[in-house]
Amino acid sequence: MRAPVGQIYQATEGFPGASCRLGTIHTSTRTGCSLSVTSSTPESGRFVPIVTDLWRTSQAIIRYRLDDILIPSPKPCGCGSAMLAIDRIEGRVDDVVLLPRSDLAKEPALQPLYADVVKSAILAVPGLHDFRLVQLTPTQAALSIDPAPG
Ligand SMILES: [Zn+2]
């Protein structure tokens, strides 16, 4: 049997999306769950979704902010769907490290450093198997590494 394997984007609070026939995850209103955008960053389009699900019979979910960070697709999906195409689910809000801005802005501000950037930078070092980075204060972090065997 040759059935295509798809993905679902599901949370306890709702069912915000599923993949189309081309494998792209789209937000979906046909599942009874609508998704809106908040905290978007202009450089990447990253956003934290807000879910509304009025189809539930036990408890309505209204404008519930999920902890996921989503990256929208930079181009429309070839399937023709008008629903937002999601390039990937990057991780959780808790995975973001906030660092002081390095520019000379007059106002002190924190700049987000997303998990994929941290992971790519740390795991680019040869000989590492795994790591854990914990932000202690806005200017201090603790990095624990697990070296590769040998
Ligand atoms: Zn599609």
Question: Describe it for me?
Answer:
With 150 residues, this protein is mainly beta. It folds into two domains: 86 residues, no CATH class; 52 residues, no CATH class. The chain is 6% helix and 46% strand. It has one helix and twelve strands; from the N terminus they run E-E-E-E-E-E-E-E-E-E-H-E-E. The protein has a five-stranded antiparallel beta sheet, with no helix packed on it. Strands 4-5-6 form a three-stranded antiparallel beta sheet, with no helix packed on it. The mean pLDDT is 82. Bound molecules: zinc ion. The site of zinc ion has 7 residues, from loops.
Main features:
150 residues; mainly beta; 2 domains; 3-stranded antiparallel sheet; 46% strand; globular
Mean pLDDT level: 82
Shape: globular
Strand content: over 45%
**Alpha plus pi helix count:** 1
Quick recap of the structure?
The protein is mainly β. The chain is built from 1 helix and 12 strands; from the N terminus they run ββββββββββαββ.
Please specify the SSE layout and strand pairing.
Layout: E1 8-11, E2 14-19, E3 25-27, E4 33-38, E5 48-53, E6 61-65, E7 68-72, E8 85-92, E9 97-100, E10 110-113, H1 115-123, E11 128-137, E12 140-147
Antiparallel strand pairs: 1-2, 2-3, 3-8, 4-5, 5-6, 7-8, 9-10, 11-12
Zinc ion is lined by residues 20, 22, 24, 26, 77, 79, 81.
